[in-house]
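Hey, I'm writing a tutorial for new members on how sequence and structure tokens pair up, and I'd like a real worked example in the thread rather than a made-up one. If someone can provide the structure for the chain below, I'll link this post from the tutorial.
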Amino acid sequence: MSDNSNMPDITPSPAPTPAKSTSPKVNRDAIQKKAKSDTKTNTKTTPKPKPTPTKKPTQTEERTRQENRAIGLAIIRNVNMLATIDERQKKREKKLKALKKVMPEMKKLAKREEARKKKGEEGLDEKDQKRMDEIKEQLRAEGVFDED
């Protein structure tokens, strides 16, 4: 017979047993299903609400809307006009108040000027003319000579 001592032993070895893990048993199918459901909810977009069809206004509704708009615009115009009139009135009152303040002194200066004219002299003397110029400057500062 032949000598098989040089030949390796070819006997089938028992099937290797998988190493036991110490981690708890994991259900991979459940994890995959959960992942799929998560991605589905994440990628889903919320449906856009359908716009409600707008009803075309009737002729009377449209006319009423236009009339109301015209009335509103007229009210706004009137309010603006009243505000402008009020501003002008305040300016006039301010000017009148400033004039009333200097009126007695202006009358005195005017009487002096008339008296000098009767004597044959022209205008005011230097002191009175200086005071008249000061009064005019004060009135300019208060806005009496401003144009509206």
